[in-house]
Amino acid sequence: MQTETRHDWSVDEIEALLDRPFNDLLFRAQQVHRAGFDPNRIQVSTLLSIKTGACSEDCGYCSQSAKHDTGLEKEKLLSVDDVVQAANAARDKGATRFCMGAAWRNPTDTNLERVIEMVQAVHELGMETCLTLGMLTEAQAERLREAGLDYYNHNLDTSPEYYGKVISTRTFQDRLETLAAVRDAGISVCSGGILGMGESRRDRASMLRELANLPRHPESVPINLLVQVEGTPLYGAEALDPLEFVRTVAVARILMPASYVRLSAGREAMSDELQALCFLAGANSIFYGERLLTSDNADEDRDRALFERLGLSFEENAEWQATAACKRRASA
């Protein structure tokens, strides 16, 4: 099946995809997925909080906001040695990309240089690097490119129409401008959204339109399910229908056929059957490890057991595998 890459989707078109009979939607998504990817290979990333808590933003879902009383203890920026130790452990468990997140509205130039040391150290391990630090200026994005950063994560979170009900301390346009700075610097973009925040199906269609109509599709599209944290404004939000989550994954795959679609936050609470449907719908990336910033993630042993049951395997980092093989031969 030939897939068409478009950047001119309308909300009505996307909503019509979300409305399709479930079996028809998944069949189309799987066709698109197989045209661009091995359907049984999953890219694995690990996420580490390198600076936790005391963020000045008021994102309604976030435990790290200084405006919400969630009982989270703030922590200073980790040392490079601590980050390398965590990256080594993640690589040894099969992760090919190491993502580092800091609870900032935007990094200072001084903090950026400290994070760049971490990026360079993780690169030396043979892993791809990803950062999520909040908003960036064009100059900061260029500095990260010069340092060799592979990916920058900056989620849109929700539709532009619903955005103000979730966040008031930065605008939807602010997010688009950071994505433009990252994209123009030549860094791969990681951007997606959070489902289950009380948004409508049309809001989900609108969010997907914003992502799919960017000048270049994000190389990674994380689809998050709201993790409800007591003390945040969204605690107690009505749970999303699990099949609606699968529908959104399928439509993301259809709209952005060459992007990695990642099951991100909320996977710890998903059944094996729900995750299997998401993989069928075109998800081909996960966060792997016991923590996602401040929330629990799916157990690693459970992940490996599920992969074995489904006949899935981890996508390997070819460069790292070649380097490791050379080291083994040298020490033999």
Written description of the protein model:
The chain is of the alpha/beta class and 332 residues long. Helix 8 packs parallel to helix 9. The longest helix has 15 residues. It is globular and about 50 Å long. It starts with 10 loop residues before the first helix and ends with a helix.
Number of helices: 11
- Assembly state (oligomeric): single chain
Could you say which overall geometry the principal axes of the C-alpha atoms support? globular
Q: Which regions are unreliable across 5 or more consecutive residues at pLDDT < 50?
A: 318-332
Largest sheet entry:
10 strands, parallel
The proportion of residues forming helix, as a percent range, comes to: 40-55%
Number of beta-strand segments: 12
- Class derived from helix and strand content: alpha/beta
Span from first to last CA?
47 Å
Strand residue percentage: 15-25%
Question: What's the order of the H and E elements?
Answer: HHEHEHEHEHEEHEHEHEEEHEH
The chain-level mean pLDDT equals 86
| Cα-based radius of gyration, to the nearest Å | 19 Å
